[in-house]
Amino acid sequence: MIPEPASIDVESFSPPLPELLLDRRAVEHDLGYHSGTAPEPVIAAIDELLPRVASHAQLQCGFRILPPSSVVIGPESVSCGSVSLSMGSVITKQLKSSSSIAIYVSTAGHGMERWANQLMAAGDMMQGFVVDTIASGLVEQASLWLEKKIAASVKPIGWSLTNRYSPGYCDWPVSDQHNLFSLLPAGFCGITLTSSALMVPVKSLSGVIGVGSGVKRGAYQCSICDLKDCYRRREEPEELEEQR
Q: What is the pTM of this model?
């Protein structure tokens, strides 16, 4: 009999900003610069904007671990009861040893998006772009923070986590967001979907993580995926990776 977490109910959180990696070096990296190589106007913008993030960010994240008895991982899709997630073979191969899956979401909220739009509307395109980049980094950091919560929830039964996988990557169509979100409460963490399956707020992430005793989290293997513009392909500075 496959063990199950003590609770498989959904859990949601508001990650404390100080617990996320948000500093000049991280923002430089997300803008495409190596540490210390960004032009002085960009550095000045980062230093001016970072202290103001707390008054605009509305971080939320959460997850649901599905009952193992409802999850069947096939060669091209994952069946979750009556819902089928058409992830494609690239992802299902990475999940094949999982006992179940955790569905997760994270968002920076509407505040960061409004702030970036206000700056751009006022003609400050550079500051608006920096805020937009900070918001993207915040969502990624919130997702990393959430991984630790998921790992802690399954550790008592000897389970570990795979990497995260999201619709839109590795041949998993974005349109499958509707099926993914049907497995979560309506409006979970304040996120909704448009008819074209885009998330609102825009600065949001969603996806699945495999959980089980026979899985582990590894480096992202770009060789398994042919998506050329994936952010995971960007070389990550060693010192940043160590902090994360």
A: 0.89
